[in-house]
Every structure is written in structure tokens, then in C-alpha cells.
Amino acid sequence: MQLNSKDDQKQKIDLKSALSLATTALLGTATLANAAESVNKDNWSFDTAFLYYGESNRVTASEGIIAATKTFNDDKTLNLKLTVDALTGASANGAVAQPNVQTFTRPSGNGQFQVSAGEVPLDDTFRDTRVQLNAQWTQPIAPDYTASVGGHISKEYDYLSLGINSNLAFDFNKKNSTFSVGMSFFKDTFSPEGGIPNAFSSMVINTNAESEDENEFKQSRLTDSDNKTTVDLMLGFSQIINRRMVMQFNYSYSMVDGYLTDPFKMLSVVDQEGLAQYYLYESRPDKRTKQSFFAQTKYHFEKNILDFSYRYMWDDWQINSHTIDSRLRMPLSGSSYIEPHIRYYQQGAADFYQPFLQQAASLPNFASADYRIGEMNAYTVGIKYGMTMSGGNDLSFRLEYYSQQPTSAGHAEPGVLANMEIYQGVDAVIAQVSYSF
Amino acid sequence: MASPCEVIVETSDKALAQKVGKLVANEVWRIEDKYSRYDKRSLCYQINNNDDRSISIDNETFLLLEFSNTCYLLSEGLFDITSGVLRKVWCFDGSDNVPSIEKVSEILPKIGWSHVNYSETSLTLPKGMEIDLGGIGKEYAVDRAILLIKEFTDLPVLVNLGGDLAATSARNNNQAWQVGIEHPGFEQSQPIVISLLSGALATSGDAKRYLLKDGIRYSHILNAKTGWPIVDAPRSITVNAPQCIQAGILATLALMQGQQAENFLNEQTIKFWAVR
Amino acid sequence: MATSIDKVNKFTNRCSILASLILLSGCANLGVEPWERDLLAKKEMALTASPIDAALDDHIYFSKEASSGGKSFGGGGCGCN
Known about the structure:
- The complex is a heterotrimer.
- Chain A is mostly beta strands.
- Chain A is 7% helix and 54% strand.
- Chain A is built from 2 helices and 25 strands.
- In chain A, the strands form 5 sheets. Chain A has a 16-stranded antiparallel barrel with strand order 1-2-3-8-9-10-11-14-15-18-19-20-21-23-24-25. A 3-stranded mixed sheet of chain A has the order 17-16-22, with no helix packed on it.
- Chain B is of the alpha+beta class.
- Chain B has a single domain, classed as ApbE-like domains (T-fold), CATH 3.10.520.
- In chain B, strands 1-5-6-9-12-13 form a 6-stranded antiparallel sheet, covered by helices on one side. In chain B, strands 2-4-3 form a 3-stranded antiparallel sheet, with no helix packed on it.
- The two termini of chain B are 26 Å apart.
- The mean pLDDT of chain B is 83.
- Chain C has a domain of 27 residues.
- The two termini of chain C are 30 Å apart.
- The interface between A and C is large, with 93 and 53 residues.
């Protein structure tokens, strides 16, 4: 080691503290308790979680996950995950509130339901259970190169999704920088009860089970099922900035092709007084190209760890969105922590979004009143508490409040609609418990 | 550990002192059994004779490899735990049996930390290469012993494994441990007495492990890059640091500076005692 | 016919790419030595520290909003949107 006079001062300090750090890494951590572990590292580790999601008047969902990870020799990992979720409740069907009672046919064609005056119409036949299986294999394929491949299958009674993904990561600059390229391909098939309605076909009110009404209903259906394919491409770059900070930047490009319309949703066609004359099933384009730019930073303070991220999304439906997400992990003692969380989301409306159609206007190419592609703000506040139990296993609890507020994208509200609630907010409580062993 | 080991406990409770002694002895034997190059049952022996196949390692071994890696990088390659194979060529028995340049060059390809491939769970050594944790094994055992003692009792305890030692705390009434450093075999051996309040002491020195030929004294500290001993190093260096393994590495790195050993440590503002 | 929204989008695209390139060029001298990874090696400092939480949240926001992915693949997956 040559000690040149100009490097002297810097080298001196480096050596002493470098050794201190290295010694702490060797001796100073809790891992010491297991220093005499058996040589075999072939065991499984499990993560389980149960989540409850409840909106005040609408959808309730519960979801359970069990994930198992096994690390083999030479850093090969297998990850298997089973997810089961169940949804019940009502969801807005796209029609607009009216000063009188409205009657709607259930999308399945079986029966009708009524909505009181002044209320936003909600269709409560939205009820489903889903099972999903994921498998992911990761391994180094060359020094500094890590590859990963995985598969996904998800099934609900009316929906099947099959997907594969692969990813290649390259570490350089003493593993301070990483480039990654990933691709995924999904094929989804949708067979809704009652079939897929014709775009913009009129919703038939099935007042009785007479054959002519049945035929009319059948005629409003285009086909029994349809599908869509999604291709995603992702480029990522992560960089260690200093001893306390790491950053990540991703660019994603996604192309969806196929049936993208929601067969359960419709639009009210209103006259100049704002009164609904009839209802038409919605229609969306059969292609969508989305791009997003994502940046994330993690910073380790003396004890706390801050996670801050921003995502900007834009697509060819003219939807733009901004998402800011931040968490602060604060250790309470040696084995427990508390982590507050805040998220803010804002999106602009799709160019074919309209809260309702005007009878006088000509029918556009595409239209949807689904508030989820309209203009909205949403925020989430939450808190998570976690602890390590005496056996070394982790238990955590998470409670969050999600509030969504759709806003007007500038559409005029003629007649009675000026007094109706067109943009209704949705609030939900999220509660989760997780256990890892 | 091939040297006398002692555990000194300041207490009047004999049973407790014996328990502490046993605790330390078991841990030291565990480390010795695991990392001894010579014991065929040890993990180290398995690693060194696995012929370029990958072997599973546990967390402790991984941490030691990481530490060795750091020392390799900090010393710019002078400290290298794969240099143990040099003992096949060098025998430091005080004689004049210096090996030829060809013999040393032959074995150099079998040295090189950069050829070692390891991860959190596995280690692969090319055939003919060996890892030798002798340079840090004793000091690591001292630090581990101190950790275990501190979990077991608050009593002041000093653990001394053949000259590499550390104390859990000062003695009762904040008195220092009086440690004498003897250098057997040295002509002018004035034992140095060090007052140790806390931390560790590690000594790196040659005593009988040297070769003397044509008036040149070859120290047993070998430069891993050239395969030849460091020249003009002090006969012995004792370093004080918070932990024994730190002290040990600093003493070894200092000796590798040869002539510059004392300057090197002075510039680092490290407490040390050197004998030339 | 390029609308003003298209122009804003194109501008944002170019800005993002430019920002990324600037960041990349400055990255050669950033980073840490292997012995300075004590904090970074902690599980909590991983870019996705709780993958299960992230998967559950992604599912919720994918069902209730028009955006998905960014950090990981958006993909298809379920009939909830």
C-alpha cells in the first residue's frame, strides 16, 4: 500500500472506519445468535397475509395469500404463491342518478333491480371468487447476470388469465448499478354470464319471461366470450447513491389488444331536461397502449427508513395519472416498528369518457361512463405495525383508509342533472394481517 | 489453537468462574474444530479438498469470508487468506532453508482471492487452492468468546488465547487489567506492561518463526502477491483496538509495511507497541 | 392532428428520457465499497421491502383506478377492471 502524501489524510480515515464497519458486520449483528447453524440451507420460508377491503356502500373484498420461497445452492430461488379472493357488493353500473326510480336488467339477463330516486345506480350482482397461482424461478446465469422466469394463472367463474414473464438483470460498477429488462405476456378470456353485449346496444328491460323479450335480449348479445392479450415491456435502472441511499428508475410500455369494454356497464341517454330515455351498453376501443415512468428512493436515516416514489402514466386513451407514494419505517425497539404510509393519486379522464350521453348528440365511436377511467383524485393514509416474535417470525398489522373522489371533466349537466350527484366519492377501509415464518 | 489459553474472571464465586471458563472453552473448540486446516473433520478441510465443486456454507462462514474480502480489498491484495498454500514451500524454523525462486513461482498460481467464488450460501474453490483462516481465527475466537460472556454475566472477564486477548470491561472499581507482553526468544526482552481498561490486544510477531540466510532475516509474514516474505518488518507489533479481530488485522497490515510499519500505525492514530 | 394534450405528453416523454440520461451519466462515480453496505444490506432497505403488501395494494389500485404497474408488471390478471 503506497501512502502518497496527497492521499494520506483520506486513506487514513478510510482504513480505521472501514475496518470498524467490517468488524461490526462480522460480529455486531443479531445474526450472531445463529452463527453455529447447520450447514444445510435448504429450507423453505413462508409469507402469509389476509386482507379485508370494505367500501362504505359498495364492494367488500377479502383476499388471502400464501407464498413460499426456497433458496437452493448457488443462489437459485423458487417462489410459489397462492392467492384466493372473494368479492361481494355493488358497483356503479355507469348510469346516472335521476329524480325518479330507475329499473335495470341484470347483466346476466336474469331479473331486474330498481334504484331509488336521487341515488347513483349500483348493480349488486357483482359477486365473485378467484383463485390465482404464481410461480417464479430466479437464478444467476453468469457473473453479474441474473435471470428470472415465471408463470401466472388466475381463474374466476367468468374469467381466465394466463401469463408468463421473464427478466434479465445486469449488475456493474461493483454491484452499485443494475440494469434490467423484463417482458410479460398475458392472455385473458372473459365469458360473462349473459354473454357479451353488442357495443351500444340498448339495455333490454325484461319485464316478463316471454319469448319475444328473451329473443330481444339474446339479440343484444354479440357473443358468449371474448379475450384480450397484454404485452408489457419494462426497462429498469437502479443505483446505490451512498451508504444510506438507493434509487430506482423504471420505464414501462404496455400494449393491450382485444376486448377492453366492461360488459356490465352502460350509459344513460338523457334528453335536454337531463331525464334518462334509455340506456346503452358502453363501448371502448379494442386497443390500449400505456407507458409509465417510475422513480423511487429509499433513504436510511439514523434509525428510520424513508421510501418515496413517483409514477407518471400516460396512454393513448388520453388518460394521464400521477402517483406519489411514501412510507416511513420507524423502529420502536429492537424487534418492532411502526410505518405510516401516505399515497396521493390523480388521473385525467379518457377521451371517450362521458358521465352520460345526450340524446340530441350523435353517437360517438366510443363511450364509457365508468368513473374509473374518468377524472379523479384519491388519497390513502395508513399505518403498519410489525414485530419479530421470539421464534424469529414476523407478524404485522396494517390499517389504511382509501378515499376516491371523481371530479367533473368538464361535461355539461343539463336540466335535472345539475341537482343530481353525478360524481360520487368512494371510501374504503383496508385491514391486513401478515405472518412470515 | 496451538498456544496456551486462559480465561480470567474477577469474582469470588468459583462455580460461576468455572461456568464462564467452560463456555469460552466450548466456543473456542467449536471454532477450532470448524476452521482448522488440519482436522479432516473440519469444514475448512472439506472446503480445501472439494476440487472446484461448490460447497454449502453457513452464515458464520459467509461472514468470515466477507470480512476476509474486505481485508483483501483494504490491503490491496497483500492480505489474502488463500496464501496458506505457501507453507508448502516456506518452513520458518530459524534455519537458512530459503526456497528457490522457481519453487515459489510454481505455487503462486494457487494463490488469489479473486479466484474464489462465494455467495451467502455456497463457496467454490478452484482445485489446488486452499483457504487459511489462521490469520484471523484466534482473534475471531476471542471476540466470539467475549460476546458470549457478555450475554451470560456482567463480571469483568479477560480472555487470552496465546497472546490475542480482550476484556469484557474494566476490573472492579474501574481498575485496569495489567497485561504483560513477553517476547520469548528475543535477546533484549524487556516485558512491556500494558494497562488495559477495555477493548482488545493482538500481537503479530515472529519469535522463532523466521529464516536467517546471508545476514538477511526473512519474517514469516508473506506478501501474498509475490510469495516472498516482507523485509525489514518489526520483530513484533502489539495493537490495541475495540475488538480483537480489528487489532489482529491492523497488526498484520502494519507488519506488511515492513520498514514503514510504525509510521503506518502512527498515521492511523492507533495505539501500538513495536519491537525491532 | 396533434392536440395540446398530445404535445404535453410528447414533451413529458422527452423530459423523462433526458432526465434519465443525465442521471445515468452522473452515476459512474456514485456508489459504495463492499464494506460500506451494512445499512443497504438490511432487508428493510430492499427496493420492495414487503412484496406481499405491494401485491395486495397493486390489486386494489388496479381494480379501482386506470393505472397499473410502473414498479412491476401491470399485466392482465383478473377481471376486476
